[in-house]
Structures are given as C-alpha cells and as structure tokens.
Specification:
Blueprint: E1 2-3, E2 35-40, H1 46-62, E3 68-72, H2 80-89, E4 94-99, H3 106-122, E5 127-130, H4 138-151, E6 158-164, H5 170-187, E7 190-195, H6 202-211, E8 216-221, H7 228-236, E9 241-242, H8 250-271
Helix pairs in contact: 1-8, 2-3, 4-5, 4-8
Length: 272
C-alpha cells in the first residue's frame, strides 16, 4: 500500500446505480476513523455497478459507524475524484482507498495512484493511502469454490475452467493461473486457466479438460461482477455450466477490511 502524490486525470462517464454509491454510510462516521473508499473498475453493464454496490453494502454492514463509499475508475459515477472531494468536504483528514481489483495491473499501479495524487494536490489536508489489491487471496479462492459448489452437481470427473480477464503481460497471466491450481487443491477437481481477452481461450481450456478425462465442464469466472466479458465467456461456450461471479461474499468483505486495516498500520508506521 502506498501514499500517492503524482499527477494524472481521467474522464469518467456518469451513470446512476444504487443509492449507496458515493454516499456516506447511514450511521454518522466517527471522525478519528479514516474513510474507506472502495474503488471498482466500472462497466457499461448496469449489472456490474449493482453488484459492486451490493459488495459495498456488505462492507457498511460489517462495520457500522465507518464512512464507506464506492467510486469508479471509469464508465460509472461517482468518479474517484468526486468521492475524494466529498470525503474532504466532510472534514476527513485521512482516507484509505481500497481497489476492488483482482490483479495488480495498470489500473492499480498507474491509473489509481495518479488520480489520488491529483486529488491530494486539490486537498493537501487529506491523506490518501492506497491499500493493496485483492489479489489471489486464499479466502477469495475459497469464495470461488463456493460459487462452483452452488452451480455444480456431483460428478466423478468434473473439469473446471477458471476464466479470468487476461493481460498483455505473460507474467501477470502466470500469476492468475495460480488461482486454478489453488482451486484444484481445494476441490480435487481438474482445472485449467483461461482468459476472456487472450489465450488460452475458454474453448481451448475446455478441450484440455476433456483430454484429461473430464466428464462434465463448469466455467468458474474469476470476476467480481458480471459484465460484457462474462457474457463473452457464456457466448464462447453456451453448452457448459457457468458459475456465478464472486460478487458480495463474506470472504470479500473480510479481505477488504483487512486491506483497510493493513493500510492504516502502514500509514502509521510511515509517520512514526
């Protein structure tokens, strides 16, 4: 996690989602508790914004009295800039910005830090600490296992195609492939990794699973929310079962709050 102070901006398209988005939690926040700004990617698909709003609702319920808000990097409102401005206007002196992102790619390493640096330049009295991404946390892999269990029926040789976004970085894709290996260890089922935007594709993963003896195939989307890419996966293999996205899950709630706590500890250490 980092405190960021460089410059960059990004235009964001506005869209109405749920009432909770961008608004402080219903319970009046305690002043000495840094605000939590959960930052999602954003999507043209309204299901995506509704899903991440449900995730934030769970965050609010888990810690009443904390000021918890949702912001988007792109395509939805409110933007990161808008939410930071609102948090500063409410009198906060510190906010933890938690990326609701599964990978530590461009958005987490470049895009978001630049937005926060520009926001800090506008509000020098407001400390902005960027928390770590969600990553392939073991608890999140267990949540993926839960989605698989909810969607599958008992078969002796189930093959699971773990489907992620995909990156132009082979190293990033190799890290994501670890999710499939961990899921295999948790479930005992055959698994293969595949990507919505690069190879190996879903049809390739299905072919590999069948060659390994899978009798039935299930797609486990390594996505927090549904959208255009998950629809693309369904279109690529409509004949197999597709599990639900991770969405609002107790494990996700715990991980985000853990990232928040770790970010505050880090900020205090850096200040000492």
């Amino acid at each position: 996690m980092t405190d960021q102070f460089s410059t960059a901006t990004r235009p964001v398209a506005a869209a109405a989602v749920l009432n909770i988005v961008g608004a402080p939690s219903a319970v009046a926040p305690v002043r000495n508790r840094p605000a939590l700004i959960a930052v999602a990617h954003g999507s043209r698909d309204p299901r995506s914004a509704a899903t991440v709003a449900a995730v934030v609702a769970e965050l609010v319920a888990a810690r009443p009295g904390f000021d918890v808000r949702l912001a988007f990097l792109d395509l939805n409102a409110p933007s990161v800039e808008q939410v930071v401005d609102a948090v500063a206007a409410q009198g906060h002196t510190h906010a933890v910005v938690a990326p609701l992102l599964l990978g530590n790619a461009f958005h987490a390493r470049v895009d978001l830090p630049g937005l926060l640096a520009a926001a800090h330049a506008r509000h020098p009295q407001l400390r902005l600490t960027q928390a770590d991404v969600l990553g392939p946390d073991a608890r999140l892999v267990a949540a993926l296992r839960d989605r698989v269990s909810e969607a599958s029926t008992p078969v002796s040789r189930l093959g699971i195609a773990v489907a992620a976004v995909g990156s132009s970085s082979p190293a990033a894709n190799a890290r994501t492939a670890e999710v499939a290996r961990r899921l295999a260890a948790l479930t005992g089922h055959l698994t293969e990794i595949c990507f919505a935007t690069t190879e190996p594709s879903l049809p390739q993963a299905i072919s590999r699973l069948r060659s390994r003896g899978a009798e039935s195939i299930l797609v486990a989307p390594w996505f927090l929310a549904p959208g255009l890419l998950t629809d693309r996966l369904v279109a690529a293999a409509p004949e197999v079962i597709h599990a639900d996205v991770i969405g609002a899950h107790a494990a996700l709630t715990a991980i985000v709050w853990n990232r928040y706590d770790a970010a505050i500890t880090h900020a205090l250490t850096m200040s000492a």
